[in-house]
C-alpha cells in the first residue's frame, strides 16, 4: 500500500494527477489546502470511499470540521496519520 498526500484543492492539476496514480490498495490523505475538497461534493475523489481521508487538524484549522462531519466524511488525526505512514510501503506527496 502507498499513502498519497495531497495538499492542493480539487481544482488544481495535482488533484487529478494523484487520483490517476492511485493503485487499488492505496490511500489518499487530504492535508493542508487539500481539505477544501469538502466544498466540492462532485469531485471524483469521493468515489474512493474509505480510501480517501482528511486530516482532522487541517479541517479544524480551516473551519471545515463541522461540514466534513455533517457529510460523514472520513478523517484521521495526526497520530493516526503517523501510524498509517509507518504501516505503508511508500509515501508520495502531491503538491
Automatic annotation (TrEMBL):
It comes from the Bacteria. Transmembrane segments: none annotated. This is Sulfurtransferase complex subunit TusB. It comes from Halomonas dongshanensis.
Amino acid at each position: 500500500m502507498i499513502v498519497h498526500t495531497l495538499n492542493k484543492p480539487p481544482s488544481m492539476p495535482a488533484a487529478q494527477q494523484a487520483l490517476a496514480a492511485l493503485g487499488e490498495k492505496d490511500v489518499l490523505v487530504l492535508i493542508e489546502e487539500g481539505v477544501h475538497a469538502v466544498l466540492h461534493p462532485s469531485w471524483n475523489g469521493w468515489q474512493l470511499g474509505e480510501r480517501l481521508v482528511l486530516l482532522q487538524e487541517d479541517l479544524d484549522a480551516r473551519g471545515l470540521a463541522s461540514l466534513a462531519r455533517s457529510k460523514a466524511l472520513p478523517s484521521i488525526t495526526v497520530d493516526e496519520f503517523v501510524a498509517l505512514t509507518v504501516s505503508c510501503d511508500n509515501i508520495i506527496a502531491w503538491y
